[in-house]
Amino acid sequence: MKLIVGLGNPGRKYVGTRHNIGFDVLAELARRHGAPSPRAAFEAEIAEVSVGGERVLLAAPQTFMNLSGRTVRQVLDFYKLPLSELLIVCD
């Protein structure tokens, strides 16, 4: 399993700004790979897709960027993923 975390800031103020490029990338990956509606977990919106036959978790932390490390750590720990399986998308 891989984990892709898209960083951004919650709220309408940041929609369409460079600060939310991580959210935009996740939305496009979700669209291309037919992700179900995201669920709330780990202070994030989480969706799972299959890419090339591999499970990929898409995580959009719903904290401000400064606190997104909490989400990353919670997901890595819960799924017991090594850092080598983590990709973070940010501006």
Strand fraction: 25-35%
How would you state the average pLDDT, rounded?
Answer: 95
End-to-end C-alpha gap:
24 Å
Give the helix tally: 2
Structural class: alpha/beta
Chain oligomer state: single chain
Task: Output the radius of gyration.
Answer: 12 Å
Structure description:
This protein is an alpha/beta fold and 91 residues long. Helix content is 26%, strand content 31%. The protein has two helices and five strands. It has a five-stranded mixed sheet, with helices on both faces. A hairpin with a 2-residue loop joins strand 2 and strand 3. The termini are far apart.
Give a summary of the structure in a few sentences.
26% of the residues lie in helices and 31% in strands. The protein has helices spanning 21-32, 68-79; strands at 2-6, 39-41, 44-51, 54-61, 86-89. Strand 3 (44-51) and strand 4 (54-61) form a beta hairpin.
